[in-house]
Amino acid sequence: MKKFLRFFRSMKFGMILLVLVMLLSLAGSLIPQQESAMHYVRAYGSQAAQVMIALGVTDIFHTWYFYALEILLCLNLTLCSILRFPRTRKAGREWLSRAEKAEGEHPLTSEQREKLCAYLSARHYRLYETAGGKVYSKNAAGFYGSFLTHLSILLVLLFGSLVLMTPDIQDRTVMPGSDFILEDGTVITCESFHIQDDTGKLDYASVLTMKSADGSQEKRQEIRVNEPMRFGEYKVYQQTYGTAGRVKITNHANGAEEVMFLTDPCFLSIDGRNGVYFQALYPGFIQDEEGNYTLITSTANSYTDPVYSIQSIADGMSTSVLAFPDEELRIGDISFTFLSPAEYPGLRIKHVSSWLFGGLYFSFGLMVVALYLCFFAVPVYVKVQPDAFTVLSPKNQQGLMIDLGALLDEKEQEE
Questions:
Q1: Is the pLDDT of residue 75 over 80?
Q2: 215 with 278, same domain?
Q3: Residue 88's CB: how many other CB atoms inside 10 A?
Q4: Overall domain count for the chain
């Protein structure tokens, strides 16, 4: 049991857990998360998609094994930190006590002693007066570098996991020129969207404007698949796209007009009996020599030759019709003018509390400080006696000894 506990809180076990967490996080970054099953079937094939969904890699940050690894790693780092802290505090006291009891190894004259003390004081060494002489110390905080490194890794994992696991995610579609309001009153407006750029290259991009509920903050940005927009506690991604039909409905009896977007099959009618039943919008067609049409059902580009498949219903009679942009179909006092389709984006909106990001940034800052203490703030003690001095440190201080040797070299001083 003791061997198991020793291994459980060891650095070796912590490194194994850390590598596993990093590999799963990398997989979660490379594989799109929380998409529909058909998305993975189209991207990876039917069999691979089934295996991926069964293993949970399509939502890897919410799987039981990712939670388990995170918990084990946090426990490992917590135990390492708790056990290391008393030793860290004890190490500082032990080295100071060792310096107080140390005997001088390098002889000093009275003039050299004065130069040495002035040199150490000018470099902000802390002075301890003892019965056997003076002890100058510097970088005592370096003893805490290892402890703070463990603590910072623990905090990074903790806050990073909370950022990954607790965001409020919603998917919304928005037509160009329209907007929608989030729960806290933030308004997102889609100014424009395109699938292709001016050269015809695929470029799924939306121009969005976000405004806070009180109107005090506003931001405008063009987003793409890998270029999300950050606004306050929100992060907005270009997730999907679609093409919607548009129809202008005119009531000639009163002159009223309205433009509607068509994404799903629907029945457009004033009286509930006569009107147009929209079935589908196709991206193009092929017409043979006899005038027959073959509809194109899929495309990754813009709809170059769109065609509407509709049912015209009047006086109980239904007629199948193919309608092209700018064509008008009139039924009684109502006319339906089918317009060019509109491309629209599907947005993924993530909301994460700002205090979580604050904690994550603090953890990274603490890690930088901890690494500095580990590698650059090496504790050093200089015991100065009336006729000699010695240098003590957990690490080699050859550089300091060279500096002190040059300072105290009488020949060099005479020159």
A1: yes
A2: no
A3: 16
A4: 3
Note down the domain range covering 201: 167-242+347-352
- Considering the domain architecture, whether residues 219 and 284 belong to the same structural domain is answered as no
Say if residues 313 and 321 touch (Cβ distance below 8 Å). no
Which residues, in sequence order, are CB contacts of 167 under 8 Å at separation 6+? 350, 351, 352
One domain, residues 187 and 267: no
pLDDT of residue 414: 47
The predicted-structure confidence for 86-139, as pLDDT tens digits, reads as follows: 888 888 889 999 999 998 889 988 889 999 999 999 999 999 998 888 999 999
Tens of pLDDT, residues 23-60: 888 888 788 877 777 778 878 888 888 888 888 888 88
Q: How far apart are CA 102 and CA 279, in angstroms?
A: 93
Q: Which of 283, 318, 342 is the last residue of a domain?
A: 342
pLDDT in tens, 210-257: 999 998 999 999 999 888 999 988 999 998 888 999 999 999 989 899
Write down how long the chain is. 415
Per-residue model confidence as pLDDT tens digits over 269-315: 888 889 999 999 999 888 877 777 788 887 767 788 899 999 999 88
Longest dimension (CA), the chain: 119
User: What is the C-alpha separation between 190 and 175, in angstroms, rounded?
Assistant: 7
